[in-house]
Amino acid sequence: MSAKHVDLLVVGAGPAGLAAALEAKRHGLEPLVVDENVLPGGQIYRSVSRSPLADPGVLGPDYLRGRALVDAFTGADIGYWPQTLAWQIGTDKRVCVTRQGAGGGTLQIEAGAIVLASGAQERPFPIPGWTLPGVMGVGAAQTLLKASALVPDTPAVLAGCGPLLYLFAWQLINAGVPVRAILDTAEASARREALRHAGGALRAPSYLLKGFRLLRAIRAAGVQHVKHVSSLRVLGKTQAEAVEYAVHGQTQRIDTALVLLHQGVIPNTQVTRSIGCDHEWDDAQLCWRPRTDSWGETSVPGIFVAGDGAGIGGALAAEPSGRLAAVQAAVSLGRIDAARRDSRALTLRRELASHTSIRPFLDALYRPADGFRAPADDNTIVCRCEEVTAGDVRRMADLGCVGPNQTKSFSRCGMGPCQGRFCGMTVAELLAQAQGCPVPEVGYYRIRPPIKPVTLGELATAIEAPEFLSERAGFPK
Predict the structure, then answer these.
(1) Which of 66, 72, 82, 445 is at 20 to 30 A from 415, Cα to Cα?
(2) pTM across the whole model
(3) Which architecture, in CATH terms, is 126-262?
(4) What is the pLDDT of residues 416-473, one digit of tens each?
(5) Same CATH topology for 126-262 and 376-442?
């Protein structure tokens, strides 16, 4: 297999990855950015430079803001390879990547340092009926809108909790698509808990103002908004036909052929787990995150995590996070000294703090309810790939399974194409509930490469290093 050395390898071309690459270039490093998508921008700025929408402004000013970052990146002399999967990363910073599509193949990269900017993923939301056609995640629906200008042809019911739920409802309204209803599953106690963090929220007034504007626009559009939903299920035989929910003990129903689910996002830790980085449980965000220092460096020297992959902070916080990782990488590789790093870091840390001060408020306000993270209905599917139910997991716990890795032996749960991305959190919470112990004691799946499917043909086709480096930042030809 052909191999090539680079100063800094950046995995992911979202706001954290792009900012890291630009900062690295500024300090004399030669970064290389690999990304699975066709265009730079990540999920938050997906297709911002080539939007298929007649008016990209319907997605809002935060989305359009990403164009300046993408333009700065594509205008820089930075190595960039889109449609490229980094499927194995070793502690020695040797990385196996595979390019997708025509002319694809595999190459090994030897990096001086690595910045992982793999972002976040939607938290699993297993409810009865969530596997029916006509049910999908809000994030997936938003991707269709950004990447392909596809919108629902029927009024959707949005259900769950989290800022994205309201942002996407607002974006649909702007795009001229009616929203049938919003069913908010956040508990009544969440608002009281959030008020304890009001001081930090007031230091980020722009975020509060944005939230008020979204709610006002949704209200003005006449969207039914139901709060404190305590149970939720999708009804239908072969596809979604209705959503049934309960509020204050009263069960109600809305007929709909499209249900969009969302209950927040969590760090995508598949890559860091496959490397062997240490992880810790974040009780505020109810998720695992890689253990990092103030620069984003993991327990594996020279490997950094930036952006939401290190803990949910949002797109604006991701940029200074990526830049901080890059300046520390520049020090570790001998391109700048600590004094220059620290001088630059003062500005970056102030910027980061201005965007993270509101996070405890948002984490408390949109904390997913226990009943929606560990479904009570034994018939609810939790592992979509292998069709394993919540009842199956509880029975495995009764048989002596103490962690998610043991459930694989009993049921193949977590061994499907998604590699546990959409069931790992749920399985861990169900096992913890059954055993009466905290989730950190239960643990998580052991992730092994390849972290996503790779074909034998791709493995057998070596890409020459000179060809690999021939593409610079800018759009692929």
Answers:
(1) 82
(2) 0.94
(3) 3-Layer(bba) Sandwich (3.50)
(4) 888 899 999 999 999 999 999 999 999 999 999 999 888 888 888 887 754 445 455 5
(5) no
